[in-house]
Design goal:
single chain, alpha/beta, Arc Repressor Mutant, subunit A, Rossmann fold, 2 domains, three-stranded antiparallel beta sheet, 14 helices, 43% helix
Length: 329
Amino acid sequence: MEIPQGKSNPAPVDSVDKTLVEPLVRAAWMYYVENKTQQDIAERMGISRLKVLRLLRDARDQGIVNIDIRTPLAPYLNLENRLREKFALRDAIVTTAAEEGDPLYTALASAAARFLEQRLQDQMVVGMGLARTLLKIPDLIRVPRPIKCTFVALTGGLSYITNVDTYNLFHKMAIVVGGNVKYILAPFIVSSREIKNALLQDETIQSAIHLARSSTLAMVSVGVADKTGLIYQFSQMSPADLEEIRKLGGVGDILGRFYNQAGQELPIALRDRTIGVDIKELKAIPTVVMVAGGPTKRAAILAALHGKIPHILITDTQTAQWLVEQAIL
């Protein structure tokens, strides 16, 4: 704390109205140096606690008190604050940068695990998408006691056998956390609208999708609009689908729902063959957490932020810096 004295004052002592400054200085000194409570200060100065709060606020605003937080985490906290401000996010969590691929997936999943450890509660319904990053969370999350929450798939499963699958993710989450699971027992993408409509008549599938739409919290990632995407490689998404997405300016997907630079879902044929929660339904969930980072995902992340899809973003430092810079342009 800096208190106006001699030559170190922001302004010469004689130029300061002491009747205005003295109460601020006294309140700040007692609070920050003597570690007095606001009630103690109110009683000593003969004023209300509300007046003490105003004095402490004014002491900061006028530069009488300068708070300097010295920690290696300061650059991360600064980026998080800038992301919140630039994109009107409820919160942002920035983790260390890592090489794209498995190291980055692990870094992001670790931050997502820490987030869930603090947020998971009994009776909570947690919807989760399918992504390589999210698949790592069960190996990283630790809870002090079993939490009787329910994890629900936000989409159907992949069509082809792979080590990246919905059932593996949810089964492991239930074991580690102690909760329950609910799957959408249908493929992620089917070959025709008619097949999708027929599957949606099944009561088990209807019940799972209804629960997914009713999630308390949803955790998702983003995909890219090219052949490296997870759903392109392991579902019935075709080159024709990809070409249509490109023609309409698609930059990425969330839950298999492709969107443009403004974060608006594209009116493509693939939408009529995709089973699960769409972007409009996702945005209706009270808390949507997006976990994504890396150079190849940046355009898709930025577009999702423009579309106000996530409430909370978990990303790496390099992506966070890039996003902040893009927001300035």
